[in-house]
Design brief:
The chain is α/β, with parallel strands linked by helices. It has one domain: P-loop containing nucleotide triphosphate hydrolases (Rossmann fold, 3-Layer(aba) Sandwich). The chain is built from 11 helices and 8 strands. An 8-stranded mixed β-sheet has the order 3-4-2-5-1-6-7-8, with helices on both faces. Helix 1 crosses helix 11 and helix 5 crosses helix 6. The relative contact order is 0.20.
Amino acid sequence: MSATVFTIANQKGGVGKTTTAINLCYALAERGVRTVLVDLDPQANATSGLGLEKHEGASLYGPLCGEGTALEKVQPVGASGNLFLIPSEVDMAAIEIELVQRENYLLQLREVLGPLRASGDFDAVVLDCPPALGMLSMNSLAAADYLLIALQCEYLAMEGLGQILKVVEKLRDAGVNDGIELGGILMTMFDQRTNLAHQVVGEVRNHFDELVFRSMIPRSIRLSEAPSFGQSIFEYDPNCNGAHAYGYFADEVIERFKLRG
């Protein structure tokens, strides 16, 4: 049985995208879902956020250049035995330029991930993208079954939502990935004390209804602190509101996409 591939993408930075990737993957693994987090961002924040150092040659740069395979780059993380990471490194910034020069440049990541996806060793593959709709993000959309959007509870973030959905529609129409679906929208940095946050959530739910996850991630200092210690929120402060929220979110993802767990 092949793994389900999710991409967490948003061209706006600072919306909790990488925080979501780290904590979703950790929570899925704790629930028995064999999960690979693929860090595609040259800044490698997901890599350091899970406590790994950036090492030259550890990323998908080589496989995307025809050297080695994605399976060779998979590293186990944590104690559950179900969490794995393909790290990123600075060299991944160069692939943005190199991909454009290839034939079928939007399909390179899909081809590289194909054997990993079909190996039967994993249930879910989660792609964490750079905060821009460049070549790596476009490749991730071309490789994914589902797009998960982390959306900050503010009006400016909603403009970005419309833009990324247009890109997905264009990829479908062009036949690049006619199977990709919007898997869901996760509201992040929710501050229940402000009317604005409630208004944004209400408007997004009116437009997208059940596609919006019931879980909402609170604005939390603990969530911001955890990556600097190389830990998920479940390791750093398992009893805080952020940990509970990401736990509920993982349960929703397992239920919605029928993941093993």
